[in-house]
Amino acid sequence: MLSREAFNDFKRRLDYTEYGGAPLLGLKGVAIVSHGSSNANAIKNAIRVAAECATRGINQPSNTT
Q1: What are the tens digits of pLDDT across the range 8-27?
Q2: Read out DSSP for 10-27?
Q3: Which of 28, 34, 27, 29 is nearest to 51 (CA)?
Q4: Strand stretches in 1-65, DSSP E
């Protein structure tokens, strides 16, 4: 009973639908790669991840000189 919450948290961390996909880096735009059998929740979260990547400029070159 005590480990149920820890197990549920661990399960959420491994659930691909919570993230939706992974960013495909090295492109001029934002692309999120999703699992082929993604459900509606996964697609919604993939769109959220894409918006966050675009807002944060994850694919913009940095000026570290």
Answers
A1: 888 878 787 887 888 887 77
A2: HHHHH-GGGT--EE--SS
A3: 29
A4: 22-23, 32-33
